[in-house]
Amino acid sequence: AISPEYEGDNDYDISIAPLVSFHYRDLIFVDNNHIRVNILGSDTLIESENFKAGPSLSIDFGRNESNSVDLTGLGDVGTSVELGGFVSYQQGPTRARIRVRQDVASGHNGMEIIGDFRILFYNSEKTTIVTTIKGTWVNETYMDSFFGVTPFQSTQSALPAFDSGSGFKDLGANITMSYLFNDKWSFAGNVGYKQLLGDAKNSPLVQLRGSKNQFVGAAFAVYTW
User: Fold this and answer.
1) Which residues, listed in sequence order, are joined to residue 53 by a DSSP beta bridge?
2) Residue 142 is part of which domain span?
3) Which of 112, 117, 171, 190 has most Cβ atoms within 10 angstroms of its Cβ?
4) Whose CA is closest to 140, among 121, 162, 158?
5) pLDDT tens, 6-56?
């Protein structure tokens, strides 16, 4: 995968990591560091053809000062355990979804509200192409953890102090294509772009050392059993 060294950076890092995805019927969804339990659907006590909703658990691994020289003096943002929930509505090839997450482990200590709209553009026996538009709103605590600069951090980092507030953090889109080689193996590729907004964009960390324009790309070999 190719992604910024930290959110808001203009330098990119190439990494290799496993992608773990486990779905049990229409009930439990595990995707890397995210777990969702659906309580609405054909396999649940509350039947619903189009809606899904339920609790969620996510892990945010934070940000280490050692990730980049740009972060010197800003300290670490610890690992967060985020409890929350989700609701989604699917109609034909489109899906709208909202997720809410709140840290309960003293990492970033903040809250995120993530909205996304997905469209299945192409679907054949072997090939699938999906595009997703996504935006994120965060509260003041979250924004301060990643984009604020305290007076003490200012003296250590040579960045001007910056007291950020709540608001929309980003808006972006991505395209994912998957190709099925056989009943076990498939290939997937993803490219995406997002623009930082509000105080995330206005942070001196982004203005002076990074970029509001954020790009990602990834390729996966997928084995299904």
Assistant:
1) 87
2) 2-223
3) 112
4) 162
5) 999 999 999 887 778 888 888 899 988 999 999 886 666 677 778 999 999
